Amino acid sequence: MEKCVVLRLSNKDADFEAKFRDLLAGKREVSEDVDQIVRDILDAVRLEGDRAVLNYTRKFDRLDAAAMADLTVGQAEIDAALEEVAGETLDALRLAHDRIVTHHARQMPKDDRYTDTLGVELGSLWTAVEAVGIYVPGGTASYPSSVLMNAVPAKVAGVERIVMVVPSPDGVLNPLVLAAAGIAGVSEIYRIGGAQAVAALAYGTETIAPVAKIVGPGNAFVAAAKRRVFGTVGIDMIAGPSEVLIIADSTNNPDWVAADLLAQAEHDAAAQSILITDSAELAEAVEAAVEAQLKTLPREDVARASWRDFGAIVLVGDLEEAMPLANRIAPEHLELAVADPEALLKKVRNAGAVFLGHYTPEAIGDYVGGSNHVLPTARSARFSSGLSVMDFVKRTSILKCNAENLRALGPAAMALGESEGLSAHARSVSIRLNL
Amino acid sequence: MEKCVVLRLSNKDADFEAKFRDLLAGKREVSEDVDQIVRDILDAVRLEGDRAVLNYTRKFDRLDAAAMADLTVGQAEIDAALEEVAGETLDALRLAHDRIVTHHARQMPKDDRYTDTLGVELGSLWTAVEAVGIYVPGGTASYPSSVLMNAVPAKVAGVERIVMVVPSPDGVLNPLVLAAAGIAGVSEIYRIGGAQAVAALAYGTETIAPVAKIVGPGNAFVAAAKRRVFGTVGIDMIAGPSEVLIIADSTNNPDWVAADLLAQAEHDAAAQSILITDSAELAEAVEAAVEAQLKTLPREDVARASWRDFGAIVLVGDLEEAMPLANRIAPEHLELAVADPEALLKKVRNAGAVFLGHYTPEAIGDYVGGSNHVLPTARSARFSSGLSVMDFVKRTSILKCNAENLRALGPAAMALGESEGLSAHARSVSIRLNL
């Protein structure tokens, strides 16, 4: 293959702002319009339950099951998967699991109950979502690490029922995925996928009781289905292709920076790897190192396409200038591969996860760091966060007045009720105050 | 009008489960299919900016503005509104504002930074969303209290730019809404609404810089537009018609219970008021009191339609039996109007807000309690929470390894990377460890 020509920008250039805006606005995904098909699938599953799920599984996954029992994964199958997986990988999965549990346990919110100066009691009580569905893609994107990252926060939150769906096209199922589900303590597993799996989780069927929230990445059908069932159930963010922004100074080994850029690029031809540096020398060296390393990668095609089409190297006058650009990019992953990462960290406003210093390749966060690898993509770190325990709990607010403080607050409530034309609101107060 | 015949159930009846399921499954809204129109409006605003917004405002709001400047509300107009609003109402708005600020300030999450047993540094840092859009409906649903409930949590979270959009059909704008915006410290106000306002907030126009998140209720067009721009920006829940569940024992004054049921019913013909009680006597008395009070309500038509079509009285053997039913209903508002509300509170799993005892009518929570009145409707309290400061902040996770603990964790990350077919992930670790 030919050498990639990667986009190179410098914030000294007169047209920098325009080119940087183009970089920000660049669409890396063609969004297929599958709305009508998905609508039909959702309707069919809602009306016909299991029968529709079986039909679509036959059609899309080429899996001819007579009954949902044949698509249900039992403990024996999970045990077999745990046997089958190599010891080293199983140990790594268990280490990852334990570290994810420890980190996420710190995220549990605390109940708050207090009495204010008027004697009114207020509060916020947190409870776990009762049942959660986890979508796991089939095929090459069927990652055991993602099973852990989705299931563990739910488990830590106290979700009683965790239902995993994973398509097994032509009957093929990755034993690592089952092993991860076993380690994480998933409650139920079904070999189904696509919009029909999302519908089964949202509406329920004769076999699958409905859940209250659905998380996990999927293809265009899954994304469209999640968007449509939003409201009936909760959903997580719609995941886009992955991305990394590395801010690097001249203290770096260019081979390490190149390796991190390519770790992102190998995910997907639509992935994006961006380097911002104050060192023209480092920029040159990294570009050369990327080219050299690309040639030795098993997933060279994917990584090369990503780097060629969406990669970028941005030269800035000094590292301080990098931060406003980084916050505009709002990257999923931000590596601060600089001598003093803490100084730059203080200026981070929008980023899913930050990796500090030279010894924290983003891949550590993907697997065994303990933090979650489900992170906001496509600039959504401007308004959303990575998956956490908070996604599996909900807050109930508490209010308790007595006769005395109702008398103090009531007239204001009545005034506002009347001002909004809601007399019955006002009366529900006045009737208690004999007004 | 004729006396309402309200649905009456008893959990002693043989067909109770079937009838209760029907009650749960009941749709209270006809969802208009406005997807195609909304798609066209979004596309037009994205491509043509201000011009499209002006055109749609002319068409839908019958407001002929030559330029966006004419649709921009300045400080003078806010000051005039503050002058115009009656002193008592203004004082009530200010009291509400201050109480909402105090309560929401307690919701601010704290940063967490720690070093684990291996010496790996981890953490969660919270930052505010930079810019938020608040949609305020026009017409009769244009509530100043909702302006406070949406704007204050954003302000408390530290959002720098709060942009309010509110349609003014035929030029009519509720001065109370402007006054509330002034009190809350909204940054920018535009007299626009519908899908075109959502589009302007999400994509930006020449006049309106884009925001990162859009909150606030709206009609079918607004809801469909929010669903479509989700991903480009964050959105809050899609709000449905309001609802209350009152659990009441024989210690109640039936007139008070009836007043609370009607305070909900007067919102909207699609609102829902449900009473669960262990007292057949109270049930009878409340039903009679509702009928009597209905006749004196300015919004009798609306409240009567709601009570007739969606109201229900459920008789249970004892109060303990009420709680599993309440958790299945997952009400937006739950009143525990019983002698010992704390005992029942312990059993609440799914509810947006709980109002305890005989002296906490839900209307206090709507206005001056301090907690938020933007709460999950249509059973979504199973998976979501009322609006809070948490909706206007996002979390960035932090990971920092050194050479030593990278050596400890690295091999497991490499094993998982290789097991997922992601060699460049493994290499980004091994290259640092000279493996």
TrEMBL record, chains A, B:
User: Which cofactor does this sequence's record say it needs?
Assistant: Zn(2+)
Residues binding substrate: 242, 264, 267, 333, 366, 420, 425
- Residues where Zn(2+) binds: 264, 267, 366, 425
Q: Give GO terms: molecular function aspect only.
A: histidinol dehydrogenase activity
**Keyword Nucleotidyltransferase attributed:** no
Chain segments annotated as coiled-coil in the UniProt record: none
Metal-binding in keyword set:
yes
Under catalytic activity, the entry for this protein gives:
L-histidinol + 2 NAD(+) + H2O = L-histidine + 2 NADH + 3 H(+)
Keywords on this record? Answer: Amino-acid biosynthesis, Histidine biosynthesis, Metal-binding, NAD, Oxidoreductase, Zinc
List the EC numbers from the record.
Answer: 1.1.1.23
Quote the catalytic residue positions: 332 (proton acceptor), 333 (proton acceptor)
- Pathway annotation from the record: Amino-acid biosynthesis; L-histidine biosynthesis; L-histidine from 5-phospho-alpha-D-ribose 1-diphosphate: step 9/9
Q: Which Pfam families match?
A: Histidinol_dh
Residues binding NAD(+) are: 135, 196, 219
Q: How is the cofactor bound?
A: Binds 1 zinc ion per subunit.
Alphabetical list of PANTHER family matching this protein: HISTIDINE BIOSYNTHESIS TRIFUNCTIONAL PROTEIN, HISTIDINOL DEHYDROGENASE HDH
Provide the function of this protein.
Catalyzes the sequential NAD-dependent oxidations of L-histidinol to L-histidinaldehyde and then to L-histidine.
Please give the family membership noted in the entry: Belongs to the histidinol dehydrogenase family.
Output this protein's name. Histidinol dehydrogenase
Encoded by which gene? hisD
